[in-house]
């Protein structure tokens, strides 16, 4: 007898574009997609209804009336639920949708169901692990609703076999009859398993694929899942990754690994279900690089099938369409062009946008076989003219913001916001409602880890980052701008002789760079910091500073820099533009503080804008404040544990900049604001603007009181401002000298 799980459900209400919390309004700053969406799922119950699952940014629903995607989980506080393992739309009731959510194998996992298209969710925590952001996230779909009995659902797990619900997803039991019980979670932190890669109901039959090598293959049940048999035939050396059924044919894509990276070979097969005959229908050339993953079949014509390659880096990935069940194929890439004017970052600094990579999601519109959609590692493309000789694809991304944000800087002049992203460099944001015209190029970074500006000359901006993906040879990882970040100049730093060896520290992206308040001095954070007084033409070692310390520029005085020795709690200061440093015999800081080790982590020693000699230290032992240039610090007795802090415009009637923080009070991780220099804090995001509490970086706006920018890990940049606050017009900006 199967053991029944005790159901635990919780009703969560999500936002629909704009969220309000604690008298604040929250919304996204537009970039337009930006990350990997493993699959798109169309509803078969209603035309123009679709769901998108992302690997770390939650799920979205297409709203045909508003012509935009609606984020469905902004009110959820559990971070792990933003890694979506699978989605299944009820084939009979358009209002019902189910999701499997869990980001990593050691994180919480749950089955979610909604009876109002994802506006609210009932959450059932489950004991089996998921991996919505692990290898194999392009497999599936793992979750399926029985079209003959929509109370009956099956879910193919990665680590623990096949699971069933008989009560429309309210509770789940392991299906002991399935031959592959799972291999359990691997011990290695970053390794994963394919497990049960897909589940498919087809008339009176159920099919399930297994992508664990020990039991890899296709399984079939003809009695509603009570018994199973492994189907013989097919490619023995490959793993089944996706499947689609049409008429008497079952189509399956195969790869030699679960992806999305590391796939070297693959195939496409068709199984005639009437005579149990396999056919290898792999599109030519047979020995091409990479494998296959994305797969879809037309609802109107069972012989119209589309498949997508994956990891075909040379020359590039492709989509193939057949109208005769796979006997003949036509490649789409050479017939395609892309209009990315609405999301110009997809040019990536090149003349033409890329066709795409990691094409795991591929779907015909079930109501119109001329409409084909595919997902990539950066966007979602759609065409409505599939039969055309020349195909025009456009990003289908309005409302989707699925990016990891690493760095944010709000300037007192020029563009209101500069951003650093993971995988897509970063942007200059001058219109929050449009995808930025200006990407951080010249050079392009894969990740932009840090952005700094000159406090008294904010047109001078510096940034550091990591080399572009698949870069050939050494490339710059440092850059500077003299026009508020709109154009950039690469920076290189000569090798540093250490322990008898000559080493370069400017190629990995591990080392940050800063600039003096007047914009005249650049300091590069090699183990022995290097300074330049001529915009990178010449570099000299900073003197009298212990190895490994990182200088921070005063925001007013161009000659002053500060550095913290985390072990001793000592502040070193320079009054000659970082040429030399001396200890201050500072008081008030504890010894043994933890120094940041992650290059993407915000630096905890901060200089206050507009106030020379005022410093803040964010630490695991509290928030510390100095008003005498670092000679003495006092610990603030606040009631939140601050993780990261930023400065904004002072509150009306006050002269100290407002403070914004990512921090925790009790077990509540949230966004906070202090208008009295850290003496007290108020929460500024509410229950509708949780974003999985996946807050990564923060910046206050020096021009607009109360406005705060938060970089999330998966939901892009969100901006919050007090209720009733409106962005001033571009004309007003020009009149106040902010253009």
TrEMBL record:
Q: Which Pfam families match?
A: BNR (PF02012)
Q: Secretion signal: which residues?
A: 1-19
Key words, A-Z: Carbohydrate metabolism, Glycosidase, Hydrolase, Polysaccharide degradation, Signal
Family annotation (InterPro entries): BNR_rpt, WD40/YVTN_repeat-like_dom_sf, Xyloglucanase_GH74
- SUPFAM superfamilies annotated for this entry? Oligoxyloglucan reducing end-specific cellobiohydrolase
**What family does this chain come from, according to its entry?**
Belongs to the glycosyl hydrolase 74 family.
Query: Can you name this protein?
Result: WD40/YVTN/BNR-like repeat-containing protein
């Amino acid at each position: 007898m199967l053991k029944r799980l005790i159901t635990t459900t919780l009703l969560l209400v999500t936002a629909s574009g704009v969220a309000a919390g604690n008298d604040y309004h929250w919304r996204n700053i537009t970039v337009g997609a930006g990350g990997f969406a493993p699959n798109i799922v169309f509803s078969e119950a209603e035309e123009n209804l679709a769901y998108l699952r992302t690997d770390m940014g939650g799920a979205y629903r297409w709203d045909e009336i508003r012509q935009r995607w609606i984020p469905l989980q902004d009110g959820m506080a559990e971070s792990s639920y933003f890694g979506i393992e699978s989605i299944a739309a009820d084939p009979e009731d358009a209002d019902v949708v189910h999701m499997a959510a869990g980001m990593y194998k050691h994180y919480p996992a749950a089955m979610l169901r909604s009876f109002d298209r994802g506006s609210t969710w009932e959450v059932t925590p489950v004991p089996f692990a998921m991996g919505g952001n692990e290898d194999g996230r392009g497999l599936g779909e793992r979750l399926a609703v029985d079209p003959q009995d929509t109370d009956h659902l099956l879910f193919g797990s990665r680590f623990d076999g096949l699971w069933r619900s008989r009560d429309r997803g309210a509770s789940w039991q392991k299906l002991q009859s399935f031959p592959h019980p799972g291999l359990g979670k691997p011990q290695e932190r970053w390794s994963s398993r394919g497990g049960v890669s897909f589940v498919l109901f087809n008339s009176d039959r159920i099919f399930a694929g297994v992508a664990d090598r020990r039991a890899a293959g296709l399984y079939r049940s003809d009695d509603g899942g009570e018994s199973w048999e492994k189907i013989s035939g097919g490619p023995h050396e490959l793993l089944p990754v996706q499947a689609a059924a049409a008429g008497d044919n079952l189509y399956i894509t195969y790869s030699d690994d679960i992806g999305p990276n590391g796939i070297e070979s693959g195939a496409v097969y068709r199984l005639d279900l009437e005579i149990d005959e396999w056919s290898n229908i792999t599109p030519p050339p047979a020995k091409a690089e990479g494998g296959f993953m994305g797969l879809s079949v037309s609802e109107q014509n069972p012989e119209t099938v589309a498949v997508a390659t994956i990891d075909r880096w040379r020359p590039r990935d492709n989509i193939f369409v057949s109208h005769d069940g796979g006997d003949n194929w036509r490649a789409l890439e050479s017939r395609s062009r892309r209009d990315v004017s609405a999301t110009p970052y997809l040019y990536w600094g090149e003349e033409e946008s890329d066709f795409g990579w990691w094409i795991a999601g591929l779907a015909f519109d079930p109501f119109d076989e001329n409409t084909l959609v595919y997902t990539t590692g950066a966007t979602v493309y759609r065409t409505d003219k599939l039969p055309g000789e020349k195909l025009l694809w456009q990003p289908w991304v309005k409302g989707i913001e699925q990016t990891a944000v690493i760095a944010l800087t709000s300037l007192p002049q020029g563009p209101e916001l500069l951003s650093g992203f993971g995988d897509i460099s970063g942007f200059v944001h001058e219109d929050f409602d449009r995808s930025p015209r200006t990407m951080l190029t010249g050079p392009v970074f894969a990740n932009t880890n840090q952005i700094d500006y000159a406090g008294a000359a904010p047109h001078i901006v510096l940034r550091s980052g990591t080399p572009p993906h698949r870069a050939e040879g050494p490339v710059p990882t440092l850059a500077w701008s003299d026009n508020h970040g709109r154009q950039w100049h690469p920076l290189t730093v000569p090798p540093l002789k250490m322990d008898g060896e000559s080493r370069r520290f400017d190629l990995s992206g591990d080392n940050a760079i800063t600039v003096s308040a007047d914009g005249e001095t650049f300091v590069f954070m090699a183990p022995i910091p290097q300074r330049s007084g001529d915009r990178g033409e010449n570099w000299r070692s900073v003197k009298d500073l212990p190895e490994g310390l990182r200088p921070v520029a005063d925001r007013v005085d161009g000659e002053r820099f500060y550095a913290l020795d985390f072990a001793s709690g000592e502040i070193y200061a320079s009054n000659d533009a970082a040429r030399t440093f001396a200890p201050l015999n500072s008081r008030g800081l504890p010894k043994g503080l933890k120094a940041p080790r992650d290059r993407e982590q915000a630096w905890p020693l901060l200089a206050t804008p507009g106030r020379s000699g005022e410093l803040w230290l964010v630490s695991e032992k509290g928030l510390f404040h100095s008003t005498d240039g670092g000679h003495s610090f006092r610990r603030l007795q606040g009631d939140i544990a601050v993780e990261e802090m930023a400065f904004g415009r002072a509150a009306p009637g006050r002269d100290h900049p407002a403070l914004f923080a990512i921090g925790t009070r009790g077990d509540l991780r949230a966004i906070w604001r202090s208008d009295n220099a850290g003496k007290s804090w108020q929460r500024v995001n509410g229950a509708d603007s949780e974003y999985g509490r996946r807050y990564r970086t923060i910046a206050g706006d020096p021009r607009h009181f109360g406005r705060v920018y938060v970089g999330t890990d998966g939901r892009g940049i969100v901006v919050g401002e007090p209720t009733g606050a409106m962005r001033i017009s571009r004309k007003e900006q020009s009149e106040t000298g902010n253009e």
